[in-house]
Automatic annotation (TrEMBL), chains A, C:
It comes from Lacrimispora celerecrescens. One of its GO terms (molecular function) is protein serine/threonine kinase activity. The gene is spoIIAB. The keyword Kinase applies. Residues 40-144 form the Histidine kinase/HSP90-like ATPase domain. GO terms for biological process: asexual sporulation; negative regulation of sporulation resulting in formation of a cellular spore; sporulation resulting in formation of a cellular spore. This is Anti-sigma F factor.
From TrEMBL, chains B, D:
InterPro entries: Anti-sigma_ant, STAS_dom, STAS_dom_sf. This is Anti-sigma factor antagonist. GO terms for molecular function: anti-sigma factor antagonist activity. CDD domains: STAS_anti-anti-sigma_factors. Residues 4-113 form the STAS domain. It comes from Lacrimispora celerecrescens. Signal peptide: none annotated. Belongs to the anti-sigma-factor antagonist family.
Length: 144, 113, 144, 113
């Protein structure tokens, strides 16, 4: 197998600061360039990453900071992004994933984060335990 | 990282909000406070959002639009949008915003209505 | 202290593949954007990162792959980049850092990697043990 | 990631090498083999390196230039450069290349010498 085709993985640990939301989505966009994605595919993944990372900052760590664990796997033409936090966790995942559902107190959130992840990726899986944290895994086939 | 923040412009009873290049949670943080202040001190009948610099937007942008929509709906005012590029347009569509706010081709058209 | 001024750290683990050389330097460039660097300062850091990462791929892991550990710290206006491998290590660091010195067998290397790191960063520190690996730490004040 | 590889162009006894956007170890990998092949099959008296697309270059680029310089010096040929932007220019200077190869303003000037 040539260097081109082997499965690859990138791991990042970044701080749950709102300014890292942009860094995270741009880093994933740069990394996935090797799949020769279309501009629209890059935007799709950037948006989904932005949603998941923003959620760790606001909801997982409630603005108090912490570490965001980001993993990007590339296997053939599929990209898998995992965003993990060790924050407060989600008591009811099904409810949390409903469109427009938000626990945001200041009312500026739309509750559409999970809907966007689902709209822009082929597959979204959420695992969470209250008090332990949340893992969001998203996959998408890049046709280019 | 250029133009990270909102800039505001008033034209009569219309408030024009120039959105940043990256319309995400980080860059949205000051908007609620700033627009609340402007709306409380001025008689504003219409808010026009200028997307012409915006290259990226996520659901945080939808949140701020929905909330301004509710504010203006309460006071009988209106909201308009112009300048949205392909990425923002997709987000605005999927986020249901285009059912609530009219999209215009230019600033002039958006202000006039 | 505001979110702007606290020391920050970013950790990455990426595979020692030559295509990750570009990813690494671009990721660091994107991360340091928050310091409002000049274009020249960005190029300086990109070049130094490219040298250190390329060395892990070619020399540290001798083209056989492995993990590159990249850390970027920001403290005030100073950026610190650490590039670590667990490869073959360097028997004589002083010799290795001499301009034009290279152990490259196919003769396409210039032996200027360390010289460039020193030219473009304020400070370069190399720690290495044969059979254990190499750590290169580079610092630069960003004036913007 | 556009234009990752070298392209070659022949003009009489001159070989023009169009360098990639990112002139690093990854993108340099095929050059030695390719130029060796071209030099062995053609009578080349001059190599001209076109930097006009190159936005980034590190010491890997210096390595390939120095080696082509040695090859040409052995056969009595020459090397020229054109199109270098600010980043490449600094690297070429610090790498000592500008003492060995002449820098021209245009392709025509570089080919003519
Ligand atoms: N990483 C997380 N940690 C804890 N709770 C989360 C996390 N991600 C999402 N949630 C919960 O799920 C809800 C819905 O999330 P989402 O659909 O992204 O909308 P929004 O971010 O606008 O609230 C959030 O309001 C929050 O209660
Ligand atoms: N990470 C590393 N692991 C092992 N050896 C290294 C490493 N980095 C550098 N070296 C040694 O130091 C020498 C000089 O490195 P450098 O100045 O970057 O020049 P070049 O990469 O062109 O050889 C290399 O040829 C190699 O022998």
């Amino acid at each position: 197998m040539s260097e081109q085709n082997k499965p690859e993985i990138l791991k990042m640990e970044l701080e749950a600061l709102s300014k890292n939301e942009e860094f995270a989505r741009v880093a994933v966009a740069v990394f996935m360039a090797r799949l020769n994605p279309t501009l629209e595919e890059v935007d799709d993944v950037k948006t989904a990453v932005s949603e998941a990372v923003t959620n760790t900052v606001i909801h997982g760590y409630q603005g108090n900071g912490g570490i965001i664990y980001l993993e990007v796997g590339i296997d053939g033409q599929e990209i898998a992004v995992t965003v993990r936090d060790t924050g407060i966790g989600i008591p009811d995942i099904k409810l949390a994933m409903e469109p427009m559902y938000t626990t945001d107190p200041d009312g500026e959130r739309s509750g559409m984060g999970f809907s966007f992840m689902e709209a822009f990726m082929d597959q979204v899986e959420v695992k969470s335990a209250p008090g332990e944290g949340t893992v969001v895994t998203m996959k998408k086939k890049i046709n280019g | 990282m250029n133009q990270p923040y909102f800039t505001y412009e008033a034209e009569g009873q219309t408030l024009i909000v120039h959105l940043p290049e990256e319309l995400d949670h980080h860059n949205c943080s000051g908007l609620k406070y700033e627009t609340d202040l402007i709306l409380s001190e001025n008689y504003i009948r219409r808010i026009v959002f200028d997307f012409s610099k915006t290259r990226f937007m996520d659901s945080s942008g939808i949140g701020i639009l929905l909330n301004r929509y509710k504010q203006m709906a309460l006071s009988g005012g209106s909201i308009a949008i112009y300048g949205a590029g392909p990425q923002a347009l997709r987000i605005l569509k999927i986020g249901g915003i285009l059912k609530l706010m009219k999209l215009y081709d230019s600033k002039e058209a958006a202000v006039t209505g």
